[in-house]
Design brief:
It is found in: Cytoplasm. This is tRNA N6-adenosine threonylcarbamoyltransferase. Keywords: Acyltransferase, Cytoplasm, Hydrolase, Iron, Metal-binding, Protease, Transferase, tRNA processing. Its cofactor is Fe(2+). Belongs to the KAE1 / TsaD family. By secondary structure, the chain is an alpha/beta fold. The protein folds into 2 domains: 142 residues, ATPase, nucleotide binding domain (Nucleotidyltransferase, domain 5, 2-Layer Sandwich), CATH 3.30.420; 167 residues, Nucleotidyltransferase, domain 5 (2-Layer Sandwich), CATH 3.30.420.40. Helix content is 42%, strand content 19%. It has 9 helices and 10 strands. The strands form 2 sheets. It has a 5-stranded mixed beta sheet, sandwiched between helices. A hairpin with a 4-residue loop joins strand 6 and strand 7. Helix 7 packs parallel to helix 8. The two termini are 32 Å apart. Bound molecules: 5'-O-[(R)-(carboxyoxy)(hydroxy)phosphoryl]adenosine (KG4). The site of 5'-O-[(R)-(carboxyoxy)(hydroxy)phosphoryl]adenosine has 19 residues, from helix 4 and helix 5.
């Protein structure tokens, strides 16, 4: 019998639903919320309201595109956390109610684990370019920067993580300081392609072990910019591309330095990247350079699976389903947790 999993994602500002049959993706519908653009960041209350409006049509569309009826579903998987509580509650409540009404198992998914398992989303049966266990995954998003040792689908160990801001958060905040739009990541990426990454130098952290820190870089960027603006009020306009390129290069260097150290210490050469910041072209290029120089087998997800999506929730749910790792209706959403 087919195993058909409906995945639901609502941890931040994307409402998403996806259907996976026997590990192969049938549909992935993502409704992004434009309402936050005017505020320069996600407004939690507006996000929950938009999720409430979107959740039924998005699930309906995902089932329709998959050509699957709700009665054919084997289980409903949903993001239980971490994320914005109000946003999570919409997806969690819907998923639980839907699973209960169909009398099928509900499967809770850790959003961070799902970002890592996005590498196992298969668009066709023949899709076999997947990391082999054990592999290292650099998880870089708006809220997290972690190096994870992935031993199996359900066995992950965080070896290092940020002690303050995440890489994406630092990019977004620096972009805000420059008066660019939201989210800053894609804008910085675009500008950086035309800039000189060596034009400016920003301070890099000296953090022990395999941990990261990005708050110092953010401050260094802000103070340097303030000084330069005193000399030239149009400094940002004149140097936009170089500022973006230098900022991006500093962040990529910080991320790759630690990843390289871990890979060397553990003698692992299966290396993956995941999370919203893995869409960044500078980071992707650096992965390719490392592959050529150090013999890494690298795994970079498709753009559509780097940011929040339900396909990664559904695939994580699929592997938990195979393990009969189900959730009970009393399990609440959680806003903070690591892997
Ligand atoms: O994983 P994600 O979609 O959301 C969570 O944090 O869960 O990641 C969003 C982050 C934002 O900080 C955004 O600016 C960043 O990913 N981002 C990028 C790019 N696209 C998205 N950062 C750099 N370059 C990009 N192309």
């Amino acid at each position: 019998m087919d195993t058909i999993i409906l995945g639901i994602e609502s941890s931040c500002d994307d409402t998403s639903a996806a259907v996976i049959r026997n590990g192969v993706l049938l549909s992935n519908v993502v409704s992004s919320q434009a309402v936050h653009e005017a505020y320069g960041g996600v407004v939690p209350e507006l996000a929950s309201r938009a999720h409430q409006q979107n959740i039924v049509p998005v699930v309906h569309e995902a089932l329709k595109r998959a050509g699957v009826t709700k009665e054919e579903l084997s289980a409903v998987a949903f993001t239980r956390g971490p994320g914005l509580m109000g946003s999570l509650l919409v997806g969690v409540s819907f998923a639980k109610g839907f699973a209960r009404s169909l009398n099928i198992p509900m499967i809770d998914v850790n959003h961070l684990q799902a970002h890592v398992l996005a590498h196992f989303i298969k668009e066709t049966e023949e899709d076999t370019n997947q990391p082999k266990f054990p592999f290292l995954c650099l998880l870089v998003s708006g809220g997290n920067s972690q190096i994870i040792l992935v031993k199996a689908y359900n066995d992950m160990e965080v070896l290092g993580q940020t002690i303050d801001d995440a890489a994406g958060e630092a990019i977004d905040k620096c972009s805000k300081v420059m008066g660019l739009g939201y989210p800053g990541g894609p804008i910085i990426d675009k500008l950086a392609r035309q800039g000189n990454p060596k034009a400016f130098t920003f301070s890099k952290p000296h953090i022990p072990d395999y941990n990261y820190s990005f708050s110092g870089l953010k401050t260094s960027f802000l103070y340097s910019l303030r000084d330069w603006l005193k000399e030239d009020p149009n400094f940002i306009e004149h140097h936009k591309n170089d500022l973006a390129a230098s900022l991006e290069a500093t962040i990529v260097d910080i991320l790759m330095d630690k990843l390289r150290k871990v890979a060397k210490a553990l003698k692992v050469n299966e290396i993956a990247v995941a999370g919203g910041v893995s869409a960044n072209n500078g980071l992707r290029n650096s992965f390719h350079e490392h592959a050529a120089k150090y013999g890494w087998n690298i795994y970079i997800p498709k753009f559509s699976y780097t940011t929040d999506n339900a396909a990664m929730i559904a695939i994580t749910g699929y592997y938990k389903y195979l393990d009969k790792d189900f959730c009970t209706i009393d399990k609440p959403a959680y806003s903070r947790v690591t892997i």
